[in-house]
Each structure stands twice: as C-alpha cells, then as structure tokens.
Fold this sequence. Notes:
There is one protein chain. The chain is mainly β. It has three domains: 1-20 and 225-278, no CATH class; 24-219, no CATH class; 283-465, no CATH class. 3% of the residues lie in helices and 41% in strands. It starts with 23 loop residues before the first strand and ends with a strand.
Amino acid sequence: MTLVASGNPIALKDAGTNTGGGTTFFIDDTFTAGSATNKTIQGSYTEYDEENEEETTVTEDVGTYTVYGYNAGTTSGTTVWRNNYQWADVGGGGIPWDDEGDVVPTSNLGAIGSGLTTTYTDGGGTSRTVVTAILADDSNGADNGPDQFLMLGLAGTTAPDTDNTFKEFQWGGLTVTRASADHVGTTNGCKFWIWELTTTQQNTAGASTGTKDFELIQTTGGVAPNNGIVEEFGDTTGAPHSLSEFYKGGANVSSNVTASIPTSGTIKFSDFYGAAFAASEVVHHTTTFYPDYLSIFNYGSYIKYGGYNRPGAGFQTETGSTPADIDFDPNGVTTFMGHTTDDVDIEGVYTYYASNSDSSNWQYFEIRLEANGSSLSSNNTIISSNFSKIEVYDGNTTSGTPLISADVSNADATGTLSTGGGSTVDIRVRWTPANVTVNGAKTFANVFGTNTTASNNGIHTIKIIK
C-alpha cells in the first residue's frame, strides 16, 4: 500500500479514519483483437460396447471455435493453445470437458492481435507476461464443452492463483474476477485461467475483432492509503513504538524504500508522506573473484575484455580470475529465469570494449549463467524471473556503493539469449554502457582494471540479486 500524501493526518500508529483509494491496475490498455477460425479441441470419452460388454475410450471433439483476441506465438511459454498440449488442471487431472481429463487443441493457435501491453510487475514484485487473452466461440454449439469461454494465459507456470497476480480481468466489455474462474491450469510452460461464459456475457465482451479494452486489475475501490507508519511498515520489536525505529535501512524500513526517509539524525512525521513499504533486498549469491584483462584481435579491431569468462567459452580469462564460488542455489525459489532449477553456475561476468571507429557496436557488460536441471528448454528463459540486478564491488565485501551495477529490466533484448536444453541451458544477459552504472573514477573501458595478471587488479565481489 502507501502512506497518505502531504496535508492529510499521519501518526505513528492509526491517525483515525482515512478515506480514499480506488481501482488500481497492473495493465490498463486497449488492443486490436485478431481472429482465427476452425480451432478444434478434442477429448477422450468412455463408451460402452454392448456387443463385447466392455468400455472403450474414443477421441471426440469438444468443440470447434472461432478465437478472438491476442495470442503471442506457438512455442513453449508463448501460448496456452498449442497442438496436442493437454490443458492440465492445477489441482490434478485435466479440464473436465471430457471423461478422461485429456482436453487438447488439435492445431496451433498462431500469433493474433496487436498493440497489447503484455508485461507487468505483480503484487509480489515478480515480472509477468501475458501470452494469451482470447474469447473462443462455437457459434454452432459445442459438441461437449462450453459454447464460449474466456481464457487468460501468463508465461511460466508458477504465478500464484491469488490477487497478487491479478484480482479482476477485463476483456472487451466484460470484467470477470480471478476467483470466479472455472478452471485454473498449466500447459506448454504457461499458467492459464478459463471462464465459461453465458451468451449474455459473450455479447457483453464482444466476440469480434477490432479495438478491445484490456485490464488486469490489481485492486478495486475502497482501498485507502495508510495513515499510520506502523500499519505501513510494521514494527519488528512491537509496542511501544518510537519514530526512531523507522530510519531507512533499519529493522522496519528497508533500504529499498524510495521515499526520502533519513537513515540517521533528525526524523519527522513529514518524512513519511507518500512513503510505501518495499521488501528488503534478497540476494541469491555473492562470491569474490580477481578480474582478468586481455586483448583479442577480432572483427578488425582489438577487443578489450575485463572480468571473468570460464575456460572453453570463446575468449578465456586466466584461471586465477575464476570466482571462489561459481555455483549457487537460487534463494527461496524453485524457478530461476524461467527454469526449474536449484543449481546455477556463473559462467562469466565481464565487460568488453573496442576502441575502433565502430566501437558503439562493441561495448557491452555481460553475465553468463548456466541453469542445470532436467527437461530444460532455452525457449523457457525469462531473464526477469527471480533475477532483478547484478552488482560488482571493488573489494571483498558488498558494503558501500557498487563499482558497477545493472538492472535486468534495462538489459539489451537483442544481445540477450539462451541456448541448449535438456540438462543445461546457457543464458547470456547483456547491457550497453548507457544502461550500466559505473561509479568512481574508472570508466566502462577499464572498470575492472587493466593489468593482464588477474591478482594485480585486486579482489572484487559479485552480487546476484533476486
């Protein structure tokens, strides 16, 4: 939530009744709905063979639909509607439109629709991406399933079925609540919600192409901002409360709070107007290393590399630059960068820089990671999933200001990629100099030092942040 704005009553705890609030949105947009016809869903049905006096299972159509709305693609993690991928209920089994819980589309739904804002940060601070937002209509009457239904799909399978993900969903003129969804499930690396619609609801939504309203609603009216500091931030020590317990960076107010609350010295109630709770930073891993520096003649120019890159990975830094602990278990999560894994290796952390006339094309900061597990796919990589930032410090601690820092949200999309599959996926996240913060007297070209003996560049510390 947030504390009241300037001019409103504020107290250490409970300044009395406060009105206000209203509807807030994760996404509030319009888009152009596309369409696709003759999209059939099939299921498995039990029939009784009277002649042989036994039951048999047959495949029959659930329904054949015209689909309207938005769909991102056909590959893993980009659509809920993929050929022969079962719509599995989160609670176990399949969507109960047939006898066996084996409901599957019989063909891919390609990319349809345009102009939709698809990414947002949910109430838990996790980046989410909308991949499917469709209304399916069988105008002739479905054989076994609903005549019409609304479907919303998000990339990744771990989005919780709570208001932190979304509270309400508007498609066209129809708004439905998350809690009223008839089915919640997973398929093809996605999480989905389905609402079976009445004819009236379908008409309200508007089963057609063209401009549609799209909203993922976070909260609805009546949510008022807090007017008590304790209500907003909590108090780890309990009553009695004191304003001196609420310095930024202390036990109650994390350093991630953006408001200008003092870290020490004089502190006033007015310092808290408009302030909002922010969770403390969660660190996946820290490790020390000695950055190397080397030059390689490539692409008609000498490319300068500074940092660490594992042996066998293109250019190779000296063994002495290898971090003390390259292996880590992501902190408190089962999905890291879109992959189910508890084993991630640091493959490289480095800058590279070319000083030729085309140097703008050869200046980057990169981190390379290897996710280890089973049945992994490079198509499932979502770089913002439980990974928000990397920092590197000059020294053997993470105190003070980082030497170099980069937010994942500012990564360069064209230079960020993933390869491999099965038991390992290699992931490279890249930033241009404009999206990297370099502190101190050093520049991007020599941020880690310029000595060709790694130990002479001094010890540095890498911090990978959830």
